[in-house]
Specification:
340 residues; mainly beta; binds alpha-D-galactopyranose
């Protein structure tokens, strides 16, 4: 096997090669491609010790280029939506490119998910990718130098993001990994159970732009503080993680009764978008001929709140010139609920 080694995954239309790195640690392994810095596979043991690939991905680069679901990709410069595709910084208005009606989604039509990242360093269980986003790209001020380091260790996939800008800008990076803990091609996640460590959320309008309010989940379908089956519900909202203090705190738990696999998401970021794959219909054929449709996977996108530059009560995603952006998110895997 070529663990820690790179192979060519495909070629961009302009001939630029896209590589894949395979990482392993104990019983966990994953594949990362340089197109979009995307997680292409993530294999963890089920309750019987059998390997299960829990991440959606494609067999060909062409399928990645054809889809519009952000499958597995790193999202930037601003994860999720910016309402009206504009924001103000230091008294200046910045128009952004729109790609979700009048709004700006996941960094714009040519966000970080559409770029070919460079491999800067790699070992058996870790890879650091980098991207240079020029001043003005998609409308954002400042040249942003970004790295994302994926590391497999202690039953977890950890992603550390770092960035630095030549001018004050916005920076909100996340992973758009899609998970299905019963296996990536196993169909609906409705039997999965979920828990979010969040007593509050940010209500949004019909275009998923936050109203600016921060409300209690109590007595609403947003109350996922107790582990519960998803059933027929669908979500695409941002929750406010309890106990955010810039250290790694538990944000979410997902569990598959089929395989016994659970995934705990921990993050240093203040928010988490729980998205139940509502727009997955129309996805190209997945790995090994798998069909990925509506509710066929979930995402837990750790983030600054959507549209934060337009809401002064939300934690700020502004990155000052000279400052280093750093955030960390870890997905920890085990089976059933062992204590101690
Ligand atoms: C995020 C958004 C969703 C959707 C997906 C991509 O999760 O919140 O509304 O845009 O990305 O399809």
């Amino acid at each position: 096997m070529n663990e820690g080694k790179k192979t060519v995954f495909g070629y961009m239309p302009d001939g630029v090669p896209v590589e894949e790195v395979l990482l392993t640690d104990g019983a966990i392994s994953c594949g990362i491609i340089t197109y979009g810095g995307a997680l292409r596979s993530l294999t963890v043991p089920d309750r019987n010790g059998q390997p299960v690939d829990v991440a959606l991905g494609f067999d060909t680069l062409e399928a990645y280029l054809a889809q519009d679901k952000y499958i597995g990709a790193i999202i930037g410069r601003y994860a999720n939506r910016i309402g009206g595709s504009r924001f103000a910084l230091d008294g200046k208005e910045y128009p952004l490119r729109s790609n979700d009606g009048a709004n700006h989604l996941h960094g714009g039509p040519e966000g970080f998910d559409k770029q070919v990242w460079r491999i800067r360093a790699q070992t058996r269980n870790s890879v650091t990718l980098s991207l240079n986003s020029p001043d003005g790209q998609e409308g954002y001020p400042g040249t942003l130098d970004v790295t994302a380091t994926y590391t497999l260790a202690d039953r977890a996939l950890e992603i550390v993001y770092q960035a630095k800008s030549s001018r004050t800008t916005l920076c909100n990076l996340t992973s758009h990994a899609y998970f299905n803990l019963s296996g990536h091609g196993s169909g609906s996640i409705e039997s999965h159970q979920f828990r979010l460590s969040a007593s509050r959320y940010t209500p949004a309008d019909e275009n998923l732009i936050p109203t600016g309010a921060i409300e209690s989940v109590k007595g609403t379908p947003m109350d996922l503080r107790q582990l519960q089956p998803l059933g027929a519900r669908e979500y695409d909202h941002n929750w406010v993680i309890d106990g955010w203090n810039s250290a790694l705190v538990p944000a979410a738990l997902a569990w598959s009764p089929d395989t016994g696999i659970y995934m705990e998401t921990l993050t240093t970021l203040p928010g988490i978008q729980f998205y139940t794959g509502n727009f997955l219909d129309g996805c190209p054929e997945g790995k090994g001929g798998a069909a990925y449709g509506r509710h066929g996977a979930f995402c837990l996108e750790t983030q600054y709140f959507p549209d934060s530059p337009n809401h002064s009560r939300f934690p700020s995603a502004v990155l000052q010139v000279g400052e280093i952006y750093e955030s960390k998110t870890a997905y920890y895997f085990d089976t059933e609920f062992k204590t101690g």
